[in-house]
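Q: We require from you a single protein entry containing the residue sequence and its fold in token form, and nothing else.
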Amino acid sequence: MEHITSTPTAKAPAERFTGDVYLNPIETPSEPARLASALVRFTPGARTNWHSHANGQVLYITDGVGLVGTRDGSVVRVSAGQTLKCPAGEEHWHGATETTLMAHIAMVVGNSEGDGTTWLEPVTDEQYTAAQAAITS
């Protein structure tokens, strides 16, 4: 058994996120483990860039209300207590709504090259606005 002490909160890198996003790593695996997890907090309007995961991703929403969007324009509204699974290879983004913060625990199973995440371009303001409209209509 290993008791892991808390990790300091870090601001998420601007090249992968829009707005103010804060990270607390939970588990950074070492062989043979492959599960990586982090608590991610999004301020209102903040979001990830488009990205995908080689082995998929599970998001457990711990607080607030958020959005998860995919390339085909599908948008899911998520709130505290809900879990969302993103399939392997699916390009998606996630973040807070315009008016409400959102926090989730992000879990990915990596591979021998790392966590298996491929980071892409930012979600445009137009895409984000369209996602907001999709959940309120």
